[in-house]
Structure to design on (552 residues):
């Protein structure tokens, strides 16, 4: 009977722990733990008091103090207040002697305030501090019980004293076990929360890193230690088109990168895989220029586990560099023109005057020679004029005109040149061409240069097409011939000063055209196919509102 009572009391005292373990299975339930512990402790407290003790008439050998202390310490001030009221009310129905009432008053006046004073340190302390405070509160709460045992148990009743000591040690053990179990459960849930946060942060960082790699303008290809592609970004997929991600990942890098046609790049990857830190290479693929870097890919232990290929599209940068070089050459030409043209033209004017004088006084059979000399002098003078045009850095005077009006002024001269060459001119002008701010003299020079270049590129019976059309942001001039075309390797150098595809050309005509277009805030492009012909496309920007007619 006694052992059954002890087992029942033990199970009742452990009820808060069982309830808490059953409740605390999900991290989101952690904030409700005090409520669960207080509720289970209240039930345990009532059940412990309702069970009759076979050892003492006043039921002083009882585990009721265990759920009271556990619920009070973990429930905070509100939970402790509720359990104190429940404890005092239930005990009032059990006490039958004046001594028991006095002990209950001592418990309420001394022990309860002490337990309340330990709640805040208990909740703010660590596990060892909570165990220590739990023991202190338990020993303080046991003082009235010890007095009750001394009052009810005679000294010669060893059996009753042994049971009392056993209950005291058992209560302390249950207090220790309860606090440790609750703390372990809470720590386990906190670890789960931290693990979820770490996992979530890790996934977010991985996602952020992948997004950064995808939006990066660099091509990134990751290769593991076995030589297989493990990760690529969007720029890499564009480079490796028509491959998609499923067709790239997991494949050997040689089978993927062979399309780049660069054995030196593949050799660089091999050297990095064998221990080299970094290899660089410049490759050209699909008319684009790429600066590639292959470096070692390391894990968290700083062990080499593969390689990463990073490629930077240098095409625009190289084009910008070429433009800067071109501008520097144009600037050099302008400086040369500004410094020497006047010094050259003065003696040339004197020479031309004396040649004309000699021509008048020489025999008729020598006139053809002097005519050739005068033509060459005029040709040299035209070259000097081109130099002067390139040297113009000042803001040219512009007036509001329509390109079709300028073209109509030139058509008699253009038609005459075409007739002399046996060629045809086709003109297509869209209706209502938008007006632009133009320097008419320079625009005429631009049109004549482009038209004559097209005529010279064709044989007789060739057809030159001149088109004018409105576009979204301005007006477009297109001069198209059906000549032999220009090779791709020469297209990039067309606007360089002194570069020419003609036998007797100076290489200044197209450079002059570029200079004129840039002074008019436009751009010029060239499209050419071998055997089909060449098109020069000049786009002029429409003047802003309020600026129209400002130069008129």
């Amino acid at each position: 009977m006694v052992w059954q009572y002890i087992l029942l009391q033990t199970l009742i005292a452990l009820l808060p722990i069982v309830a808490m373990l059953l409740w605390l299975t999900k991290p989101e339930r952690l904030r409700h733990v005090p409520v669960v512990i207080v509720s289970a402790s209240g039930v345990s407290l009532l059940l412990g008091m309702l069970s009759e003790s076979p050892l003492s008439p006043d039921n002083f050998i009882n585990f009721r103090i265990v759920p009271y202390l556990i619920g009070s310490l973990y429930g905070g001030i509100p939970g402790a207040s509720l359990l104190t009221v429940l404890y005092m009310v239930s005990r009032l129905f059990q006490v039958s002697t004046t001594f028991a009432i006095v002990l209950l008053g001592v418990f309420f006046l001394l022990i309860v305030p002490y337990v309340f004073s330990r709640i805040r340190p208990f909740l703010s302390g660590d596990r060892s501090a909570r165990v220590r405070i739990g023991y202190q509160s338990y020993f303080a709460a046991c003082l009235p019980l010890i007095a009750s045992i001394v009052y009810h148990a005679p000294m010669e009743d060893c059996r009753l004293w042994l049971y009392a000591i056993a209950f005291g040690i058992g209560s302390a053990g249950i207090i220790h076990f309860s606090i440790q179990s609750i703390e372990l459960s809470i720590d386990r849930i906190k670890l789960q929360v931290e693990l979820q946060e770490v996992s979530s942060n890790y996934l977010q960082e991985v996602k952020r890193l992948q997004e950064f790699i995808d939006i990066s303008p660099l091509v990134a290809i990751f290769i593991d230690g076995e030589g297989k592609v493990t990760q690529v970004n969007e720029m890499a997929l564009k480079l490796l088109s028509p491959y998609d991600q499923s067709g790239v990942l997991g494949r050997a890098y040689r089978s993927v990168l062979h399309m780049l046609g660069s054995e030196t790049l593949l050799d660089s990857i091999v050297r990095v895989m064998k221990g080299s830190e970094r290899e660089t290479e410049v490759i050209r693929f699909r008319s684009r220029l790429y600066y590639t870097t292959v470096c070692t890919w390391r894990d968290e232990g700083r062990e080499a586990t593969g390689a990463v290929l990073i490629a930077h599209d240098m095409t625009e940068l190289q084009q910008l560099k070429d433009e800067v070089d071109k501008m520097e050459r144009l600037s050099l030409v302008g400086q040369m023109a500004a410094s020497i043209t006047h010094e050259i033209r003065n003696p040339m004017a004197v020479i031309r005057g004396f040649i004309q004088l000699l021509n008048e006084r020489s025999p008729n059979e020598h006139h053809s020679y002097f005519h050739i000399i005068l033509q060459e002098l005029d040709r040299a003078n035209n070259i000097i004029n081109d130099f002067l045009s390139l040297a113009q850095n000042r803001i040219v005077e512009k007036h509001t005109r329509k390109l079709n009006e300028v073209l109509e002024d030139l058509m008699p001269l253009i038609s005459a040149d075409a007739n002399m060459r046996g060629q045809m001119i086709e003109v297509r002008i869209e209706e209502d061409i938008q007006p632009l701010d133009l320097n008419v003299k320079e625009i005429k020079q631009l049109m004549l240069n482009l038209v004559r270049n097209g005529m010279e590129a064709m044989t007789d019976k060739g057809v030159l097409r001149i088109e004018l059309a409105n576009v979204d942001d301005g007006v477009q001039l297109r001069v198209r011939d059906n000549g032999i075309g220009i090779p791709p390797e020469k297209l990039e150098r067309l606007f360089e000063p002194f570069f020419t595809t003609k036998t007797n050309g100076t290489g200044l005509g197209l450079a002059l055209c570029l200079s004129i277009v840039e002074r008019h805030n436009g751009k010029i492009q060239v499209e050419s196919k071998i055997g089909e012909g060449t098109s020069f496309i000049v786009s002029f920007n429409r003047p802003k509102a309020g600026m129209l007619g400002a130069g008129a």
